[in-house]
Amino acid sequence: MKFRRKPRETIDINLASLIDVVFILLLFFVVTTTFTRETQLRVDLPEAVSGSPAEDQQLKQLDIAISADGAYSVNNQLLPKSDLTSLMEALQKESNGDTNLPLSISADGKTPHQSVITAMDAAGKLGFSHLRMTTVEAAPAS
User: Fold this and answer.
1) ∠ Cα 100 105 109 (to 5°)
2) Angle between the 113-126 and 84-95 helix axes, to the nearest 10 degrees?
3) How does DSSP classify residue 59?
4) Which tens digit of pLDDT belongs to each residue from 57-86?
5) Tens-place pLDDT, residues 15-64
6) Is residue 105 classed as helix, strand or coil in its secondary structure?
C-alpha cells in the first residue's frame, strides 16, 4: 500500500523583525558603553565611603594625576619636573588663563601627602575655585 505524501510547503523566515531586534541591541550597547581614560601615569585611587558623584562633564576640564612616586601629569601630559613652578606653568598653559574651569586631582593612594598639597597650592595660587578630589567608591564592609 503506497501512501501519497503531501508536497512540502516552503517555509520562509521573515528576517525584518530579527534585524530590528539586532539594531536595537546594538544601539543599547553603544549607548551604555563606558569609556575609560587612559593616562600615562598608573594611579590607584584611594577609596572613600562618602562623597558625591561627578557632575556632568563640561566641554573642557583640567585633570592633575599624581603617581605614587609624586610625578605629575596635567591632562595626560607628563611633566618633566615635579615641582610647583612647572605644575603652575602647565596649568596656566592648559587653561589659557581661565580659572573657572573645573580642576580634578587624581592622586594615587600611596602618593606622598606633600605632592597633593603642592597640586592644591598651585591651583590656589592660580585662582582655581572648582576643585575636585577623585576617589573610587569603597567596597561595602561584610
Assistant:
1) 165
2) 50
3) S
4) 446 788 888 888 888 988 888 888 888 888
5) 888 899 999 999 998 888 876 666 565 666 666 666 555 554 446 788 88
6) strand
Question: Order of strands, edge to edge, in the sheet holding 77-78?
Answer: 77-78, 72-74, 62-66, 103-107, 131-133
Beta carbons of 63 and 74 less than 8 angstroms apart: yes
Cell for 15?
528576517
CA distance 73 to 113: 16
Ordered by where they begin, the domains of the chain are 47-53+60-137 (3.30.420.270)
Residue 3 makes CB contacts below 8 A (sequence gap 6+) with: none
Tell me if residue 91 falls in helix, strand or coil.
Answer: helix
Q: Provide the phi-psi class of 41: left if phi over 0, else alpha when psi is between -120 and 50, else beta.
A: beta
Burial 50-82 (b: 16+ CB within 10 A, else e): eeeeeeeeeeebbbbbbbbeebbbbbeeeeeeb
Q: CA-CA-CA-CA torsion for 71, 75, 76, 81, nearest 10 degrees?
A: -30
